[in-house]
Amino acid sequence: MNIREMSVNGQKIIPSLELDMEKGKVLGIQTNVQRKKILLAQFAERGDAYLSFAEQGEYTRLTVEELLRFMKSLSGHHTPVRSMLQLFQLGEYQKVKIADLPASKKIYLSLLRVYYAQQPIIVLEEPYFQLEEPDQLAFKRLLEELSEEKQILILTANLEDALISCDEIYRLDEAGLHLLDITDAEDEAENAHETGEAEFKIQKIPTKKNDKTILFNPPEIDYIESINSSAVVHVAGETYTCALTLAELEDKLQHYGFFRCHRSYIVNLQKVRELITWTKNSYSLRLTTGKDSVVPLSRTKLAELKELLNI
Amino acid sequence: MNVSLKRIQAIFIKDYKEFSRNYAVSIMIVFPIVFALLYRTEAGDQAAIYAFIMNFSLAMLTSFVQACLIAEEKERNTLRSLMMTPASMLDVLIGKSALVFLISAAVLAFTTYLFGYETSNVLLLTAALGISILLYTAIGTICGLYSKTLLEASLSVFPVLIIFTAGPFALSFEEQYPFLEVLRYLPSSQLSELLMAMEVGAASGDLAKPLVIIAVWTIVVTIISFVLYKKRLMDQ
């Protein structure tokens, strides 16, 4: 699937991309709201994609059963409504008007429209955002089943949501798509055991988000800060916690151009754009990643930094 | 654009359930009936009053319900989802219009019965009202397309109500303001004229003229509503 380059006010927002989609795999793209809207608009132009929008409403005066019957006769789906109710685990709400459903169930029901889609590609915008946990799990299961015959893509601004059901997650920024390296917590424990024997040097920084372990290449990291004595890794505006201490991280990362600029900060020097002098004794480093990412620089480290950068 | 009877039927049933459970909209079927009971008369100007009730009902019921059905679909973003199903835009429009047509026809027939209007030419009356219902459905479609919410839709019907229903009354000022002559060609004025002509038992030539004018209105407005419908939905 091709995505065109898109610029706003002369600034490149999305480069032209190629996305490999295949059946049996749920893809996720984590990106900001603006890029999400651009992607959705591009998908909408294609005839072969069913788009499920976050602000999808519902015929609130119909009952659940009536809605499913309506969707069935519209789409020409063959499964009887009764078995669909069972599959969707909505049996107890069969005769309830949609307006009277709990909020989470209402959204769950709207999401189920994808089940009746005829198109080979299904794009979902923020499917999990407002769902309660049981509904998230139920929908995740349905998506897995659906992915056997359809290509499924989830667009979200929130990585935690993508982690729920995506097999592959990409981060999208102005440079393009970056595959996130994700393993489940159990798999990772096994890996660590094996590598321990082979004396293999791990060059990735393991972080945690929910139950998943995410591995980052050091150049991806913007900076690391210490909050309540645990290390928090900042990557493109998202934060991830890391089990290592700041001292260990500093040791591990110094060969990758990282610098301990403050008692509780390590910064990726490749991403430093500007050295800000507030007063004679107070400095900060501004990063290239965004206007508001500023990292403090302590006075004692200034000399060291200047030496490092030959200034 | 392919049209399927099964999908039209599905939309028809869905809209019927929505309509019958949305009392803010379905209350509109009460007005023509109440008016018929209020203005029941044996006096000589029966035709004029009957024409007023019909014109009022067509705007207040037919156009209003059609506008609300379309606007509500837009308000809840369900139209966008509907467009991604095999249902074509024409399926949706025909399903809705068929429902509105049937409701209007039933209510108008009942109103006529209650009012006690008797005519020599039932066939002609049915034809005139049938064509008028089509016309007002198309007007309702246009109103619905230009409103984003249910509230906007119910307000957008008021200009229609004022121009079309009050048009025939403004004709009484025609001597003072000659330009009001154009109001004579409103479909509502033509409907009144037709009813009056039937009352006095005019020649068939006099009867045909109003019917033709209403039919021309219907064809033109229906085409406009189709074009707008297609265009506005593409923009979404």
Automatic annotation (TrEMBL), chain A:
One protein family per Pfam: LytTR
PROSITE patterns for the chain: HTH_LYTTR
InterPro entries referenced in this protein's UniProt entry, alphabetically: LytR-like, LytTR_ABC, LytTR_DNA-bd_dom, P-loop_NTPase
Domain HTH LytTR-type stretches: 205-311
Domain of life where this protein originates: Bacteria
GO function terms (MF aspect): DNA binding; phosphorelay response regulator activity
Protein name as it appears in the record: LytTR family transcriptional regulator
TrEMBL record, chain B:
GO molecular function, one term: ABC-type transporter activity
Subcellular location: Membrane
Topology relative to the membrane: Multi-pass membrane protein
Major subcellular site: membrane
Residues annotated as transmembrane: 21-41, 47-71, 92-116, 122-146, 153-173, 211-229
Highest taxon, organism lineage: Bacteria
Ranges for domain ABC-2 type transporter transmembrane: 49-226
Pfam short name (any one): ABC2_membrane_3
Keywords: Membrane, Transmembrane, Transmembrane helix
InterPro entries: ABC2_TM (IPR013525)
A GO CC annotation given for this chain: membrane
Official protein name in the record: ABC-2 type transport system permease protein
